[in-house]
Design a protein that fits this description.
heterodimer, A: Rossmann fold, 2 domains, seven-stranded parallel sheet, 9 helices, 26% helix, globular, B: Rossmann fold, nine-stranded mixed sheet, 7 helices, 13 strands
């Protein structure tokens, strides 16, 4: 039995996002999967070349249109729909990009969507977290018709490089809506690793006390080559920008090393770090729930401990 | 009349500690507190503020689900919604069915804006807003942290992985809410009394011409794997030694 899988590439116009390579690994779990990646872009060449190198990819399709500069779901979805017919599974990452787009595609197809796929049991059977990760649900589709899915990127390793899939242009002529217009995006420019793909992450909570207080984390992170995250409480208090939030409603991450500093460990935060290989907790309250999930716990004053770690490194 | 339609869902309250039933058929809901999905409460709060600013005249709240959902519709009326629509449906209501039902309500009510939570905290699907926008062939602005309405358009700031993205969408449109859009108001006792007199209309999926169809079978619920209990260290030097022994430094 073979399945034809279409993966929608996430990219910024020049660089393929690592989430796409994780979708490829997920797709490889579908028995007999033939994997196609589609790159929607103004000029897809650079991104398509990166997608073609992913091991396990059979083909890369380019859908080029001047309207594709920004990933507007209302603009991209009809173009994906135009090439979707031959595919049994249509996958995208469970990032804000993929969550926004894939469900719109599912709506256009009238197809069911499995959100946040964390494991594949067969071409029709999937496991996904529900209730903020407090339960794992196995769902099964009938196998008739198409299936849309978003891939929980923290659950899969990125596919290796070394491939050389053929790159083709897809001729898509559909009328695109003009009712949705990109205005701007504001992102703090940072030289630190991307939070979602970093091997090491240091996160701060409300105990950091202020945006100033976060400086000791930035300093340590730079020495460790780590990304910096924050708890919802710290973001709500204005100590860190929203894109740094780790947790159920923020980013769900799976670094090799996660250091939670002054974070009590609310369930919604723990949901975001469940798949971290090693969790270190530093907190002055030895009873904080974070210690229940930490592999290494250290009770004490973070304002003394963090600079001391940095000194000892 | 300028209307805002808000979709809400009845879910297990976010403070309840979720436990999976021993037979794996679901999670325990007997005797458990049920509430309006928190993201939907934010959606309703935003609709009420839009009305209070004079940019809409009526706020309609709607849900698709079993008879019990009327409790949450009454809560929404107590918060300040003008009237409620209950589309009665038993069993698992998938996002596509909910969106098809909401589309029927849209055709009837002609809202200038539809606001939903970005996801329900029970199934965590996060689909209904986008599916609805697709079926309706209208703009979607998901994960909103700011909404500014002007004549015929909405400027929406969205919380995306990269930071904050701003879109202009023509109205009518579907907007889904993120946490930081607003803080919902508390319901006061007199409002609960008043809400009992507000109109709540009951419809059925059948009467709307929507088929109750479940495309994904819920095979089994399992508790999540537990992490092994870790070790405690006493100072920074010990911590670094432990990390080195694990090959992490």
């Amino acid at each position: 039995m073979s399945s034809r899988v279409l993966i929608i590439a996430e990219h910024d116009g020049t660089k393929l996002n690592a989430s796409t390579a994780k979708c490829v690994t997920c797709a490889q779990g579908i028995p007999g999967a033939q994997i196609t990646i589609v790159v929607c872009a103004v000029d897809a060449a650079a991104v398509a070349a990166q997608a073609a190198q992913l091991s396990g990819v059979a083909r890369v399709l380019c859908v080029e249109n001047p309207a594709n500069r920004h990933a507007l779901a209302a603009v991209w979805a009809p173009q994906v729909l135009a090439i979707a017919a031959p595919f049994s599974h249509i996958l995208g990452p469970s990032t804000t990009f993929g969550k926004d787009l894939m469900a719109r595609i599912a709506g256009l197809l009238g197809a069911p969507q499995v959100s946040d796929i964390m494991a594949i049991e067969s071409a029709t059977r999937f496991r996904r977290p529900v209730y903020a990760g407090n339960a794992i649900l196995t769902v099964e589709s009938s196998g008739e018709g198409q299936l849309v899915g978003t891939v929980r990127t923290a659950s899969f390793q990125a596919a290796a490089g070394g491939g050389a899939a053929p790159i083709e242009k897809a001729a898509v002529s559909v009328e695109l809506p003009t009712h949705t217009r990109f205005v701007s995006v504001s992102a703090a420019r940072s030289d630190r690793p991307d939070l979602q793909t970093a091997r090491r992450v240091i996160s701060g909570g409300r105990a950091l006390g202020s945006a100033e207080g976060f400086r000791i984390l930035y300093s340590l992170a730079d020495k460790l080559g780590a990304a910096v995250g924050a708890s919802r409480a710290a973001v709500d208090a204005g100590y860190a920008p929203n894109e740094m939030q780790v947790g159920q409603t923020g980013k769900i991450i799976a670094p090799e090393l996660y250091v939670a500093v002054g974070i009590s460990g609310a369930i919604q935060h723990l949901t975001g770090i469940k798949d971290a290989r090693t969790i270190v907790a530093i907190n002055k309250d030895g009873e904080a729930p974070i210690f229940e999930v930490a592999d290494i716990g250290l009770v004490g004053d973070l304002f003394q401990i963090i600079p001391e770690i940095e000194r000892l490194l | 009349m300028k209307r805002v339609l808000v979709g809400i869902k009845r879910v297990v309250d976010y403070n309840v500690r979720i436990r999976v039933k021993p037979d794996g058929s679901g999670v325990i809901t007997d005797g458990v507190k049920m509430s309006v999905n928190p993201f939907d409460e934010i959606a309703l709060e935003e609709a009420l503020r839009i009305k209070e600013r004079g940019l809409a005249e009526e706020v309609i709240v709607a849900t698709v689900g079993p008879a019990d959902c009327q409790q949450q519709l009454r809560t929404a009326l107590a918060m300040g919604a003008d009237r409620a629509l209950h589309v009665q449906a038993d069993g698992v209501v998938e996002p596509l069915v909910a969106a098809r039902a909401l589309l029927k309500l849209i055709e009837r009510e002609q809202p200038l804006l539809v606001i939903l939570g970005k996801q329900a905290i029970d199934d965590d699907n996060g689909q209904t807003g986008q599916v609805l926008a697709a079926l309706w062939n209208r703009p979607q602005a998901t994960y909103a942290s700011k909404i500014e309405l002007s004549a015929g358009t909405a400027r929406v700031t969205r919380e995306v992985d990269a930071g904050l993205e701003t879109l202009d969408v023509d109205l009518p449109a579907v907007i889904t809410t993120d946490l930081r859009l607003n803080e919902p108001r508390y319901v006061k006792l007199p409002d609960i009394m008043k809400a009992k007199k507000k109109p709540l209309e009951t419809l059925t999926l059948g009467a709307l011409g929507v088929e109750q169809r479940q495309q994904l079978k819920l095979v089994r619920f399992d508790p999540p794997p537990q992490r092994q209990k870790g070790i405690r260290v006493t100072d920074a030097a010990e911590l670094l030694a432990a990390l080195k022994s694990k090959g992490l430094l």
